[in-house]
Every structure is written in C-alpha cells, then in structure tokens.
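I am writing to request your help with a piece of structural work I have in hand. Thank you for your consideration; the sequence and its tokens are set out here:
=====
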Amino acid sequence: MEFKRCARCGSFFVTAGEICEACMPKDRLEFVKFKDYVENSSESNSVHSISINTGISTRNVSRYLSKNG
C-alpha cells in the first residue's frame, strides 16, 4: 500500500486504490450511471456532453474513460 491523494475529493489516504473509502460509494454509483449512458447512447459523445447529460464532472468522466479505455 502507498500514500495517495483521492481522485475525487483530494484527501490523502493509504490504500491500493485511487479513491478514498469515503468517496467509494458515490464513485461506484456514478460509474454505473456513466457506463449505462455510454452503452445506451447511439451517438458519439464528448467528455463535456457526457458530463452535461449525466451530471458527472468532466474530471470524473475523463477518469472513467481512461479506466476503461
């Protein structure tokens, strides 16, 4: 394990992941929302349009895209 900064809230924590325990539930819900939107969208979307249509920040949309790239 190593000392990291949470990709969502910016707090420091020690773990193997990139998200702190406090942010984990919200991150999982947003990822499901993101995945459903991308899978069910028939058009090509930019990070900005995905963010607007899902309510997920562009920072997190970019992180989800790179995670599943």
Notes: The first helix runs from residue 24 to 40. The chain is about 50% helix and 10% strand. The beta strands are 2-5, 12-15. The chain has a mean pLDDT of 90.
